[in-house]
Amino acid sequence: MPRNQQILLDNRPQGEATVGNFRLVAGDTPALQDGQVLVRHHYLSLDPYMRGRMNDSKSYAACQSLGQVMLGGTVGEVAESRHGAYAVGDKVAGMGGWQEYSVVDGNAPGLLRKVDATQIPLSYYLGAVGMPGVTAWYGLVKVIAPKPGETVVVSAASGAVGSAFGALAKARGCRVVGIAGGPDKCRYVTEELGFDACIDHRQHGDLQSMSAALKAACPDGIDGHFENVGGYILDAVLLRANAFARVALCGMIAGYDGQPLPLQNPALILINRMKIEGFIVSEHMQVWPAALAELGALVAGGRLRPRESIAQGLAAAPEAFLGLLKGRNFGKQLVKLV
Ligand SMILES: NC(=O)c1ccc[n+]([C@@H]2O[C@H](COP(=O)([O-])OP(=O)(O)OC[C@H]3O[C@@H](n4cnc5c(N)ncnc54)[C@H](OP(=O)(O)O)[C@@H]3O)[C@@H](O)[C@H]2O)c1
Predict the structure, then answer these.
(1) In Å, how far from its chain's centre is CA 163?
(2) DSSP string of 176-221?
(3) Mind listing the pLDDT tens digit for each residue in 116-166?
(4) What percent of the chain lies above the pLDDT cut of 70?
(5) Confidence (pLDDT) at 59
(6) For residue 97, what pLDDT is reported?
(7) Cα 322 to ligand 1 centroid, rounded to whole Å
(8) How far apart are CA 135 and CA 156, in angstroms?
(9) What is the CATH number of domain 131-282?
(10) Ligand 1 neighbour 180 (Cβ under 6 A)
(11) Relative to the CA of 162, which ligand 1 atom is closest?
(12) What is d(CA 233, CA 107) in angstroms, rounded to the nearest whole number?
């Protein structure tokens, strides 16, 4: 059996997460039992929810134990199998965690699924046609439920979730406005993803300025908003929201290291009779097949062209993860292991 490298959660962050919270270890992979599959991971997914898991407090993802391999989505191939449904070489997606290999119980429902990497690149199953894509689909279709011609806004627009949201909303005939950090990300959002406009939050770093930028980009007001960041961006959206606007509250990454995110204008929720709904994509498994089918068609048709930031090798994962929390990624953040 091959040697395996793993990254463990070593200690919990005090405020900002640091590379010192993680520990790299090496060991042997255990021999397979009947029904088990050995998966060699090609890519590891880095996702903002992992920051919540590092704390011993309430978050939208359950906390994980110290000394445990960091949890996370992976794609790879079957390296050895003692399960009839999986053959060596099969491409699979699962939750293998921050390690080079995982031993998976092939009979446990939902732990491993075969994917077709002949039409869609394997890594996309961690992004546009994986959990982030379905997240965008759920918030748009089930929470915002836009009509053609309505204006929808998304923060972290160039990222894994935001980019999928844009393609899905354009396919429904919406005016789509993104918010992203920096001119390169904004150019990608409009020119490659086909958004109607993109606001650079680094140029509009306070409530008044962001509100003015939203007013210019959304002349008919905002009917739907997909929130990934929180803080003054959400406040600025409230100022420009139309009556009966809907907000899909997906993430509040600006506060994941413990920063407070006060709202200046919560009365606008009442004045505009708004709906604000938080959701967690893993609690809505029934929508995944329909969402993945639509996302796969958008990718195959070239109407969703996701970008990826790829760190090389397992040891690079902690630094890349901290970069993701600071916006240093450009598109879906992955770690390439093979
Ligand atoms: N509820 C759910 O089930 C669920 C599932 C998946 C993801 N999510 C949430 O969805 C959001 C996006 O996730 P993702 O995987 O697609 O990540 P991502 O957008 O690919 O990467 C995170 C991005 O957040 C932006 N950001 C970070 N800190 C910021 C700050 N202080 N102010 C403004 N922007 C900031 C950065 O983009 P800019 O440089 O453009 O600012 C960064 O690139 C996250 O909040 C995540 O927690 C929720």
Answers:
(1) 10
(2) EEEEESSHHHHHIIIIIT--SEEEETTT--SHHHHHHHHHHH-TT-
(3) 999 899 999 999 999 999 999 999 999 999 999 999 999 999 999 999 999
(4) 100
(5) 73
(6) 98
(7) 12
(8) 13
(9) 3.40.50.720
(10) yes
(11) 16
(12) 45
User: Which residues neighbour 222 within 8 Å (Cβ) at sequence distance 6 or greater?
Assistant: 151, 152, 153, 177, 214, 237, 240, 241, 242, 245
Looking from the CA of residue 280, the nearest atom of ligand 1 is 3
pLDDT, mean of residues 255-277: 95
Q: Is the CB of 329 under 6 A from ligand 1?
A: yes
Confirm or reject: Cβ of 102 under 6 Å from ligand 1: no
Domain map (residue ranges) of the chain? 3-127+306-336, 131-282
Q: Cα(273) to centroid of ligand 1, in Å? A: 27
Atom nearest to 48 CA in ligand 1: 47
Do 6 and 24 contact (CB within 8 A), yes or no?
Answer: yes
Ligand 1 centroid to Cα of residue 229, in Å, is: 6
- What would be the CATH architecture of the domain defined by 3-127+306-336? Alpha-Beta Complex (3.90)
Closest residue (by CA) to atom 6 of ligand 1?
Answer: 132
Mutate to test the pocket of ligand 1, among 253, 282, 284, 321 (most ligand atoms within 8 A of CB): 253
Q: Is 228 in the pocket of ligand 1 (CB under 6 A)?
A: yes
Q: What is the pLDDT of residues 59-84, one digit of tens each?
A: 777 799 999 999 999 999 999 999 99
Q: Does the reported pTM lie above 0.90?
A: yes
As a whole number, mean pLDDT of residues 23-40 equals 97
- For residue 159 and ligand 1, the question of a CB distance below 6 A is answered with yes
Alpha carbons 223 and 16: distance in angstroms, whole number = 34
**Edge-to-edge strands, sheet with 175-180:** 197-200, 175-180, 151-155, 222-227, 241-249, 275-278
